[in-house]
Design goal:
alpha/beta; eight-stranded parallel beta barrel; six-stranded antiparallel sheet; 9 helices; 27 strands
């Protein structure tokens, strides 16, 4: 069978917010320490203590926003322990992630400087679970106030004269779980209280993000929107792709068969239903879609790699993860009227990372390459499309073989992102482009011989993108022959 896609390029929809391409960095395993921060005295090449190779890779990726310090860690983090001379900073136990010592070498100043170095907006997640209103209020004052005040004076004593710009602030994290096991009614009241003291100083205007639902907890969304919707700018959503569902055997990141491949992709497609159903509830209270849905934790979650610390959540990254990334980004594009930020978990060495490090070595994962290929969609206008795809079937279950999205940028270039989910079958795709006549096409593809293929420190480029040219123009149609287990991005000009 043939996949048919229809799109109207002269009828663009909402803008795809750059922040949909955001990332997440938690004090977890080797994400911060070893992944981002090695210290000025490290033999690993660094810029002010930050890994230089990581800085350059993330600048290439053009990541727009970075979330920190958690995650579950956020609601046990007391920011004042992480400022001032490093030798005087308090040490603490990271109770959530491995029970290791956190020396607080990487704190507010380091995070804000790292964001400057990679040209990303900072997104700070505040402590509601074990913190206080005054602690959160003083953190915002410390970061953003430019006048005379105790916190501003302390910031200057610690080496930063001018305040930083901070646009995004999360009032708690997973407060239904590791952030306090709260009921939505209780958290809604706490959000109203805490958010009141997340103040705007001078010209700095903060976009306040409330803790939203855990996966399909629609009651949580209903309560938050009805009781606190007018006080928030964004509502978070967390959904991880567990191959067998939450609480069940997660399986290996690299040693899996076609059944596990199919299960994982089917699970990740559930993201679309979640967004649609939460959006429906939000629209009941916010028909103008002022409040953004912020998917600030998403990605795959497997068993940790053998021989690694279980609480560090280190896993490899294969072609399966590349398809998961492409599918989710396609979904975010198609719902960009409500989804205006997403943060992949996590940036380096944890879960579905874009970078892995080992000593002085660094490699780029298949997920990195998908983000790199897809970055052409940042800030572009989403294009409506209809996909009529044959089924990809396994063990009596069915999903569409082809998953897609499209956008038009300010230069008028159409970008089409295509994912062939089938582990074995190639697919011919007929794209009916309406509204303009295509004259020139270029493409990039990410694929590999086996579904388990991944990059290692011995073979860092086993899975890497290359030019794609298996297409032809016929009148107003673009015919594409797409190999199995692949991600393709096409650029169409007129």
């Amino acid at each position: 069978m043939l996949t048919k896609i229809r799109m109207n390029v002269d009828m663009p929809l909402s803008t795809i917010d750059r922040n949909i391409y955001g990332h997440f960095s938690e004090h977890l395993g080797c994400c911060i320490y070893e992944g981002i921060w090695v210290g000025e005295d490290s033999p690993i090449p660094n810029t002010e203590g930050f890994r230089t190779d990581v800085i350059e890779a993330l600048k290439r990726l053009q990541i727009p926003i970075l979330r920190w310090p958690g995650g579950c860690f956020a609601d046990e983090y007391h920011w004042k322990d992480g400022v001032g001379p490093k030798e005087k900073r308090k040490r603490m136990i990271n109770t959530h992630w491995g029970g290791v010592i956190e020396n607080n070498d990487f704190g507010t100043h380091e995070f804000m400087r790292f964001c400057e170095l990679i040209n990303a907006e900072p997104y700070i997640c505040g402590n509601v679970g074990s913190g206080t209103v005054s602690e959160m209020s003083e953190w915002v004052e410390y970061v953003t106030f430019g006048g005379e005040s105790p916190m501003a004076n302390w910031r200057q004593e610690n080496g930063r004269k001018e305040p930083w710009k901070l646009k995004y602030f999360g009032v708690g994290n997973e407060n239904w779980g590791c952030g306090g096991h709260m009921r939505p009614e209780y958290y809604a009241d706490l959000f109203r209280q805490y958010a009141c003291y997340v103040r705007n100083y001078g010209e700095n205007k903060i976009f306040k993000i409330a803790c939203g639902p855990n996966v399909d907890d629609y009651h949580w969304t209903e309560v938050l929107m009805s009781q606190a919707g007018r006080y928030m700018d964004g509502l978070s959503l967390h959904y991880y792709t567990f191959p067998n569902g939450y609480g069940k055997e997660k399986g290996s990141a690299t040693e899996f068969d076609e059944t596990w491949w199919f299960r994982t992709l089917k699970r990740t497609l559930y993201m679309e239903e979640l967004i649609e159903r939460h959006d429906t509830i939000m629209t009941r209270y916010d028909p103008d879609k002022r409040v953004a849905l912020i998917v600030d934790e998403w990605g795959t979650w497997y068993n940790v790699e053998p021989g690694t610390t279980p609480g560090f959540l280190y896993q490899q990254n294969t072609m399966r993860d590349a398809l998961v990334a492409g599918i989710n980004l396609n979904i975010f594009h198609r719902h960009s009227d409500r989804v205006r930020m997403a943060n992949l978990a996590q940036l380096i060495n944890v879960l579905q990372s874009v970078i892995l490090t080992e000593g002085a070595s660094m490699l780029l994962t298949p997920t990195f390459h998908v983000f790199d290929m897809y970055k052409v969609h940042q800030g572009a206008k989403s294009i409506p499309l209809h996909v009529d795809s044959p089924a990809y079937e396994m063990n009596g279950e069915r999903i569409d073989r082809i998953h897609a999205s499209a956008s038009v940028n300010d230069s008028g270039i159409l970008h089409v992102s295509l994912c062939n989910l089938d582990h074995a079958a190639a697919e011919e795709i007929e794209i009916d482009i309406r509204g303009k006549k295509a004259t020139h096409v270029t493409g990039t593809i990410l694929t590999s011989e086996a579904i388990q293929d991944h990059n290692t420190f011995d073979v860092p480029d086993r899975v890497s993108p290359c030019a794609f040219g298996d297409y032809r123009l016929e009148d107003d149609r673009l015919i594409v022959r797409m190999p199995s287990k692949s991600v393709v991005v096409l650029a169409v000009e007129w």
